[in-house]
Amino acid sequence: MNITLDLIVFIVLALFIVVSAILAVTTKRILRAATYLLFVLFGTAGIYFQLNYSFLGAVQLLIYAGGITVLYVFSILLTSSEGDQAEKLKKSKFIAGLTATLAALGICLFVMLKHKFVGQVFTHGELPVKEIGFALMSPEKYGYVLPFEVISVLLLACIIGGIMIARKR
Amino acid sequence: MEHTILILLLPFLSFILIGLLGTRLKPTAAGAIGTVVTAIVAVLSYWTAFAYFGAGRDAGTGLFPTLMPWNAVWLPFGGDLHIDMGILLDPISVMMLIVISTVSLMVHIYSFGYMKGERGFQRYYAFLSLFTMSMLGLVVATNIFQMYVFWELVGVSSYLLIGFYYTKKEAIAASKKAFIVTRFADLGFLIGILIYGFYTGTFSFTPDAPALGAAKAMLPLALGLMFVGGAGKSAMFPLHIWLPDAMEGPTPVSALIHAATMVVAGVYLVARMFPLFIGFAPEVLHVTAYVGAFTALYAAIVACVQSDIKRVLAFSTISQIGFMIVALGVCTSADPHQGGLGYMASMFHLFTHAMFKALLFLGAGCIIHAVHSNEMSAMGGLRKYMPLTHVTFLVACLAIAGIWPLSGFFSKDEILAACFSFSPVMGWVMTFIAGLTAFYMFRLYFNIFWGNENKELHAEHRPHEAPLTMTVPLVFLAAVTLFAGWIPFGEFISSDGQAYHIHIDWKVATISLCVAAAGIALATWMYMREDRKVADGLAARFSGLHKAAYHRFYIDEIYQFITHRIIFACISAPVAWFDRHVVDGFFNMLASVTQKVSWGIRNMQSGYVQRYGIWFLGGALGLTVILLLI
Amino acid sequence: MIRMEYYLIVSTIMMFVGIYGFLTRRNLLAMLISVELILNSVDINFVVFNRFLFPEQLEGFFFSLFAIGISAAETAVAIAIIINIYRNMRNIQVKNLDKMKW
Questions:
Q1: What is the dihedral of CA A140, A142, A146, A149, to 10 degrees?
Q2: Tens digits of residue pLDDT in B421-462
Q3: B321 with B387: CB under 8 angstroms?
Q4: Band (A13; pLDDT cuts 50, 70, 90)
Q5: How many angstroms separate the CA atoms of B66 and B353, rounded?
Q6: CA nearest A46 in C: which residue?
């Protein structure tokens, strides 16, 4: 196995993602958790870029890192007071959670690694945005205009629902 | 004759109207509605009687026809068995229509004065209407089941009226007692009806010959059970215990229900079934005669020592109903010339007794109204204060004692004649009871109107003559009592339906007159004087007997003992224990086990989303492992 | 040459870190953050499968695209609910949320 730049970048990204993720769920301060989430999202975007899906990486950065994280930060600021810390985890709870998670992780990895994926090839090459746009708007086979419309309605519903639920009475 | 349906409908409508409007109606308006309706019913009844008897006998058979102007199948069962509702007119039902509507009208008028200012005046009149309707329905019933339906309605209205003063504890107890005792007896009646219906295949009073032939073996049992129901309603020993207590109701109610009409329903029932009794179960009929005779004797003795005037009258009623039952029971054939005289005598006595006993009760009501007490000790010397009541009461006393030429003489004479023709022993016993009747009635009379005046009480509250609404019925009933004896009763009603000319058996009449006179004389000698030395002396001499009689020979206590000590303690209590601990316990156990299990399951549903998450993860994991292992 | 499994290992770890956080965090927002991790790992999987196994098609790509959109919507609604809970209970600790138990 020869070490390429690709591999180095991937390893850095992978470590970055894993560490940030673990920190996000173990840190005591909620604002830090949000920040670590942001790092994870950045790392994910990096993976998309590495896979030559730069449009998807951009979307990830825009929506996740730009929109959702800000939403998190604001809601955290709204709902927590200064110096709020997560209370200490009960030992039994911690053990239960950890054991279950590790066991599941082990099984999943076992299954996944045992499986032989056939015909995996990695072809470099950027996906042109034009192609994405045509696919998104196409009513043909492998066209995505219907899900596109559906998700627009869903987003509208979410906007209204969010306002309805969170408005002051 | 189609208008007879109005006789039932009008009181019913009046009951609905007064009962539903309730206190929204002015008391006088409620009374007026009830009274006017009853008056119309009375007029209709008289007219019916006039038209019925005026139409004359059937030329061929010589009988008054049995009419059914209305009859409809109400409740069909399988086969030919069905319950009808309708109106039956024959001599005895027409006679009963007259009795009931007359007494009811008098009581309605009388109650205007007696119940004046009472709370629940409207309710009282509503119940009176209900009672009138039910009683009329009972007598015109076309079949025995309709009779039973109205029989129970009568019982209910009696219950409601006895318990009219529902804030008074005694009244509540008395109403319950009356209801339970009569219901208990009605159980016999119902079983009798069912046996009758099962074996004859009909509920009609007059089944056809083949049906009767088929049911021949079971008829005595059915008729005997029916008589048990009749004995309950008519207060025959030992089911008489409710009647004296029923006097807790308003006095006009006692006059209407517990003297004149409802309590003779048993007599009417036996008279209704008379052809069957005489044809298929004469021995049962004779048993009723013995029961009646014993009741009459027992009640007459008890009546001699009671101090509450209404109770004296109640026991006197029981005794007189005993006379009627005896008269029916001593019949040995359907021919009035050969042992069937009692039927006519019984109906005649029912008629005259209804009039003079209602008069006595209404008179007693006036007295109670005047002195505000039921006890004889509060009375005495009232003849000066209440002359009209005094005279009418005296008329009624003479009538019930059987003095010529008042109505009681004629009917009682027929009864005694019937008894003598059955057996001399029965005749003499009944004659003796007739003497006792004269004695206790005049003891009552002298204690109220003569004797020692309770001056303290009377000075405090001066007795006065009752208002016009109360005295008019007295005078009317007294007039009827004076002249009813001259009605040629046998021309209308007799056991075989043919005309029967009443002829007074002067031998019997002389004996009964002598005995009555002796009773009156004894009472006069003992109670008319101011000191009453003899009476008190006798009471002291036979104190045991006197006390026993005063306590009605402890029949109520025996009932108490049987119900409480034996039935409640030995049967009901263990059954209740079994029910509470074993049956309930079993179901409680089921319930508690279910509940505990549910709590356990519910605790798994903690509501914490993370716990669900763990379970979910564990489940998914488990499934994966299973799939892998497979 | 980066093998496909490497990506999958990263995404699997991320997924179970998310699950662990979902199971152990007490704060509703922290739980929501964990859910975001899970969603993200799934997105990665879609994209990786698309890129390595079916390079000439775009299903995995669009699936991720729509998933990002939906997760934005989901987050908005969830945060609205959480703010509402905070208004009613003055905190967003999950242990207080057992009103819907029965």
A1: -110
A2: 888 888 899 999 999 899 999 888 888 888 777 777 777 777
A3: no
A4: very high
A5: 26
A6: C44
Interface list for A 52-111 with B (CB within 8 A): 96-97, 100-101, 103-104, 107, 111
Q: Looking at beta carbons, which residues of chain A come within 8 Å of C34?
A: 24-25
Residue B531 has pLDDT above 70, yes or no: no
For residue C14, which residues of chain A lie inside 8 Å, CB to CB?
17-18, 21, 40
Q: In a mutagenesis test of the B interface, which of A102, A107, A108, A114 is the best target, namely the one with the most B β-carbons within 10 Å? A: A107
Instruction: With 0.95 as the threshold, say if the pTM is over it.
Output: no
Question: Confidence band (pLDDT; 50, 70, 90) for A44?
Answer: very high
Q: How do the residues of chain C divide into helix, strand and coil, expressed in percent and rounded to 5?
A: 80, 0, 20
- Rounded to 5°, angle at Cα B530 from B528 and B536: 85
Closest CA to B40 of B126, B123, B132, B122: B132
**Is B277 in contact with B295 (CB distance < 8 Å)?**
no
B490, B409 contact by CB (below 8 A):
no
pLDDT in tens, A69-99: 998 998 888 887 666 666 677 788 888 888 8
Chain C residues lying within 8 Å of B613, measured CB to CB: 19, 22-23
Residue C102, pLDDT > 60, answer: no
Residue C1: the pLDDT is 67
Q: How far apart are CA C35 and CA C21, in angstroms?
A: 8
Compare all CA atoms of chain B with the CA of A106 and give the residue at the minimum distance: B621
Q: Alpha carbon of B522 to those of B303, B437, B516: distances in Å?
A: 15, 12, 10
Query: Which residue, among B598, B601, B605, B610, would best test binding to C if mutated, counting the most C CBs under 10 Å from its CB?
Result: B610
Nearest-CB residue to C20 (from A10, A14, A98): A98
- Identify from B617, B621, B624 which residue to disrupt to test chain C contact, counting C C-beta atoms within 10 A and taking the largest count: B617
Quote the ipTM score.
0.90
